[in-house]
Amino acid sequence: MFLPILRFPNFHIYSSKTFSNGPVYSIEESFSLLPSYKI
Fold first, then answer.
1. 25 lies in a domain?
2. Phi, psi (5° rounding) for residue 35?
3. Is residue 39 situated within a structural domain?
4. Where does residue 15 rank: exposed (0-12), middle (13-18), buried (19+ CB within 10 A)?
5. In total, how many domains does the chain have?
6. Would you tell me which of 2, 22, 37, 39 could form a disulfide with 31, CB atoms 3.0–4.6 Å apart?
7. Whole domain around residue 9: which residue ranges?
8. Rounded to whole angstroms, how far apart are CA atoms 2 and 4?
């Protein structure tokens, strides 16, 4: 579910409004590390 959302550059804003905590950043970093996500 996060994969399609991460694809958008506005994920930062969208996730920030939903979580507003900061756990999303951890998820984003994890995906960023994955070579498969790097497109």
1. yes
2. -70, -25
3. no
4. buried
5. 1
6. 37
7. 2-33
8. 6
Query: pLDDT value at position 31?
Result: 54
**Residue with the two structure tokens 């996500």:** 37
pLDDT tens string for the chain (39 positions)? 455 444 555 445 444 445 455 554 555 555 555 555 444
- Does 22 map to a domain? yes
Phi, psi (deg, nearest 5) at residue 17: -75, -35
pTM to 2 decimals?
Answer: 0.17
Query: Is 11 exposed, middle or buried, given 0-12, 13-18 or 19+ CB atoms closer than 10 A?
Result: middle
